[in-house]
# Entry
Amino acid sequence: MASRVGPAVAEAEVRAVLATVPDPELPFLSVVDLGIVRGVAVSPGRIRVEILPTFVGCPALEMIRASIAERLVELAPGAEVAVEASFAEPWTSDRISEAGRRLLGEHGFAPPERLGSAGRPPAPGGVVAPIALAARVPCPHCGSRRTVLENVFGPTLCRAIHHCSDCRQPFERFKPV
Amino acid sequence: MTGPAVEPDAGSAALAELLLALADDDFVIGSGDSEWTGIAPILEEDVAMSSLAQDEIGHARAYYELLAGLTGDDADRIAFDRQPEAYRHARLLDHGRGDWATAIARRYLYDTADAVRLDALAESSHRPLAELVAKIRREEVYHVLHAQTWLERLATAGGEPRSRLLAALALLGPDATSVLAPLDAEAALRSSGVLPVPSVELVAAWIVRIRPTFERLDLPLPPAAIPSPAHARRDHAEAFRWLWGEFTSVRRLDPAATW
# Structure
């Protein structure tokens, strides 16, 4: 069945399409900006995309899979398209691209701090995210650092709620995870 | 359990027992957390408990899917189509919703014990489990942070909040080690490396981890006695039958429904 489909699609074309598939919860970010695309494999008649869930219980995952598949079928009609979620490595907020971070800021969201290699949940009891949480998150509206964390849980699993003491606006931050 | 007949060897039967315990724990605590949606004491906690529920049920689904892959069953069928006696969650989760202090005490005891267990399972020889746990424990950081914040808030408030917390710890504390107690399959899980650390060491590590908090807040440390596998994860109380009735109600109404 490998040769049934016409001209092979290039991996670059697949990646270009992926860069236009929006995240359903933060639609100004593409799945590529979000860093959930782990791998793309193209062979004649077949496209396989591996994605990493941002959160295990993320309800948007099925929508993301379906919209990626739909766009790839448009790109390569007749090709066998597989979009597979995987935990082969944990998605972390460090995977959000520079462009993605900038877009978050432009849309009023504070981007997550980079956890770096220390971002691995390390030694017993000690975990890195609370340290990152304790940092004063700059307000995306006015830039002030006089902000407080109101709730580590927000409108979606990946967002926390903060408040700015200077401009007195609430804002959301993409959680470092 | 129905489904394609796959004759399990001893190793996969042991792995299945562990996956079922992990899945049922997260499924039952997540279902219990969701009871707070709409009635938590403040709006932030309404959001928090709903998010915790969503996380836990998501984690449970992932464990049920690993189990389903192992036994040829279906994740929804495992989650919803068993009788209450067949669930294998820890006894700690069997006390009913209770008041807010009970909810916080349960979350704190469970989250801290679960964190110790996940640290160990991240090194499991069963790679799909180790990979899933590597992801889950990053999310669980926020659960521990949430529970710790509220435990401190209630413990240091004095008056009614503290006395309610003490009552909750007196009720739940004796069952806290049920989360980490050895399963029937302990020996097989240890010899295969699926469980890299003996369960009794997990209990000891958990006590070491929570002791500073309990001492600082002048709270009574939960007993370290370890229950038998049967006591830890079978013989569920009446409160669980009620919760089971709730979380299976839609499924029983229309088992073929999709959403």
